[in-house]
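Morning, I've got a small favour to ask if you have a moment. It would help a lot if you went through both lines with me. I owe you a coffee for this, so here goes:
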Amino acid sequence: MKADPSDPVPPRSLSAGYYELGVYTKCVSTAEESIAMLGESLSTENQAQVEKLKARIAKAKVHSFKTSAVDRKKARTKIFERLPRYKPSMFRTTEYFTVGHDTVSSIFEADMFQTFAPEAKEIAFFLGGVGDARNCSST
């Protein structure tokens, strides 16, 4: 930047570095400096760079925004008020499934092992689609 103070590339790169390091105030100032160096009449390539810098400035400002606990609560309440509400089921009783919707059948039937692997001394299982690891047993 000292070698050529009119070149917008070094402050642009420096603003990216500041953003990655989490130094958002310096990121914003160096990005704005780079935009100012580019001037008013921009080529297509420079316009793209200005758009990137403006996006980086916006993200840096969001990350550096510091508020009080009261303001954070107000913002969260405002967001929460816009969320759709849970609509309860029209059923008056709860529906409970001990295992699932499938008919329960044992995979440890002796004829099953004889049919598929009569010479096997060990058998491995792939429980694809179990869905919930708590239903698996290592025994």
Q: What stands out?
A: Residues 24 and 62 are 9 Å apart (CA to CA). The chain has one domain: 1-118. DSSP finds five helices and no strands in the chain. Helices lie at 9-21, 24-38, 44-64, 69-82, 110-116.
